[in-house]
Amino acid sequence: MNLFTLIFKRIRLTYKQYLTILFSLLGMIVIIAISYVMYFSKHYPLPITNYISLDAKIKFIRENINVDEVDTLIVGSSLGLNNIQGVYLEKVSSQANHVLNLSVYGSAATEIEGLLELSDAFPNLKRIIYSAQYSDFPHEWYYDNYNPKLLVKYIRDELNPLEHFLLMFRACNNLFFCFKRQSEWQTNHMMKNKFTYLGFDSTGSVPLHIYGDDIIGHRWRGAQPNIQNPKSFEAVDRMSKRAYEKGIKFYLVQGPYRGPLVKKHQFVREALSHFERLNSKIMKKNNGAFLSLHKLLHLEDKYFADRTHLNDKGSILTAEAIGKFIDEKEK
Amino acid sequence: MLFNSYEFIFLFLPFTFFIYFYLNKKHLTEVSKVFLVFASLFFYSWWNIAYLPLILVSMLVNYTIGKELSFHTKKQRTYSAKKLLTAGIVFNLGLLGYFKYADFFIQNLNRAFHSEVALWNLALPLAISFYTFQQIAYLVDSYRQETKEYDFLNYAVFVTFFPQLIAGPIVHHAEMMPQFTKLKNKVKNYYNITLGLFIFSMGLFKKVIIADTFAIWATQGFDIAKTLNMLEAWTTSLAYTFQLYFDFSGYTDMAIGIALLFNIKIPKNFFSPYKATSIQDFWRRWHITLSRFLKDYIYIPLGGNRKGDVRTYMNLFTTFLLGGIWHGAGWTFVLWGILHGFALVTHRMWQKLGFKMNTLLAWFITFNFINIAWVFFRALNFESAMKVLKGMFMGPLVFPSVLTNDVISLREWGLTLGNWSKLYGDESMMGLWFLAAFIVILLLPNSMQWKKKFKPNYFYMTLTILFFMSIFMLYRKSEFIYFNF
Question: B115 falls in which pLDDT band (50, 70, 90)?
Fold first, then answer.
């Protein structure tokens, strides 16, 4: 008889003993799990939403931002996160003194509308800058399991201990997912030369350090198709209208597109002008402002990390241009 | 409330368990029953309280009719008793028809007569198919004098008992009521608790870890992909075959386990169905309580096998056609029922002719038939079913690239090598899941066999703990498939 059989199968317990040991062990496991979740939530972004960059941003805001001071929000997909450096916007503009870049990688316009529900967390907000390009407009997507009211309370640290506890455990109810996030965090999100980089500057922007071999070929060479969903424009209409009703100035900024691709493809030119035409109209209607950085800056290739993403040098230029534009509009 | 949710596992279940036995300890047995009914109705209302009045009305009407029927002795089975029974059945079927089939009927009417009658868009009340069948069985049993008289409270416990309320097993009044009244069952039983926890944890593991993993691949193939190559299509259909089994049998294990905590034994519903070597064998192992219902309340009343071969075949076919329709209001379910009806008739003829078949071949044919028939069961419409079936039988054959060296010579015959599962991602991981699933369904004991073997030792304790660890993967807190029926 081997040791395994002896320990596992031969030792018979009374049912009461069995239950006592079982519940003790299960209790220990639950306590270990709770401890781990608390450790994880301190050091890594809790998986509250289905976007890691939003999870990371929420953690960043809670730890680094005075929410009552924020007067300027930058939103958008990576075209908001990477293409505008909030730090330089603060430097250049006399109006935008406390900038927060709330952009989320991969967000569609309809998702940005949801994201802006978090603006309730910032009571002194004066302006919203939505940085986008036509390539952000094909999909009608929405965040999964998204509860903005709860997140506003979480960002403002206004959850009671029970609510906070429940939020942590709902977020980590797949403990293995948290293990995975922990193990991949350093390699996937803390390496500067990746498009998944989440090293925020003091305003939450992510300047891209992508040059030379780190540039992805097909993203550099190929243009995105001209698919612009009417739902995206409807979302822009609603969010700018809502901002106006709250007394917040809404800016829609069209990002730069690599010049050679615009020159080469008729459909890109059409896409850019369609995007500009419809959004200008919406901005006019809702007292917002439209700014085409593509037309204004005519950036050379040395400022691009791919067809639409700018590198850290390019994102300084855009921030400066936006800063001047805001000052002009809000004189 | 889902069995696989934190609120159920950490709050509802322990709270209900302790209060129930506390009340019984204080000899408040009637109060404990009232509590159990309220707890069960709370459990039921968690989804949508709007469904609550319906189940209450249904219980009240059925109890009144059942009580009236049970007054008639055998000799008194008069015309009026029959009329009363018919009225009861019509009431139940009417309820089911109104909520479940009205829109289906209107749609077909519109199609047939090119009319444009507006759909009613009624929400299907949760568990209606199950509690309706359970109560029809109660009425028939009352008519047959097979139920003893119990008061409404007992009846309410029988219908609403939360472990089996939502998706069965479909239980008989006669097998449940004596258990609720037995004094011995009013006291905590440590044997039942240990066993119940083991079976519950096994069900939790089946649902959360296995079924929900296969669900991802099945959904990808059925609902998202526009076309499927041959291997993708087979992967899709097999993924659903496994998902459905582990989902439903996982739910049943959890129900059996929870009921055991309350010292109630509910009948088994599954017994390794994919080991079946004939379609008849399959239906003796799959959703056993539904098969029992169909046999006792449809097949036998239609005449069973007592009226000659042709009538037997017709009865079998009709029974399974109705079984298909019970599962859902859609032509895909009708077709699924027809396929199973035909298969059972064919099997019966085969037996009659005295033919024999090699066991392995018999298993292979049975398993594949079931797998193919599930395509209609799962597909949202005929187009989706045909997409999967077309892929399975006429889709392009793309072999995994790891086989390049072995089958390269077949290239000239039109064979393609490459990323055969673009749809699913990690091929090797998926292969392991399918292999593991086949091992579990074909070689390992089923949960009812595990239940028999159970001993209070460290081996079973370790298994229970490992299974319970599934609670750390509840992020896919998905509903059970049979909640839709």
Answer: confident
Do B473 and A33 count as a contact with CB atoms less than 8 A apart?
no
Among B128, B122, B2, smallest CA distance to B53 is for B128
Tell me if B465 and A10 make a contact (CB, 8 A cut-off).
no
pLDDT at A304: 94
pLDDT of residue B481: 58
- Prediction ipTM score: 0.79
> What count of other Cβ atoms lies within 10 Å of the Cβ of residue A210?
23
With a pLDDT cut of 90, the percent of chain B lying above it is 50
**Residue of B233, B211, B238 whose CA lies nearest to B221:** B233
B-chain residue closest to A34, CA distance: B472
Closest of A234, A288, A244, A291 to residue A119, by C-alpha: A244
pLDDT at B419 over 60: no
HEC per residue, B243-275: HHHHHHHHHHHHHHHHHHHCCCCCCCCCCCHHH
Residue linked to tokens 């506890």: A165
Tell me, yes or no, if B453 comes closer than 8 A to chain A by beta carbon. Answer: no
- Asked if A19's CB is within 8 angstroms of B458's CB, the reply is no
- In whole angstroms, give the CA distance from residue B350 to residue B260: 41
For residue A9, the chain B residues in CB contact (below 8 A) are 455, 457-459
Please indicate if any CB of chain A lies within 8 Å of the CB of B476. yes
pTM: 0.81
- Where residue A215 falls among pLDDT bands split at 50, 70, 90? confident
The span from the CA of A300 to the CA of B101, in Å, is: 64
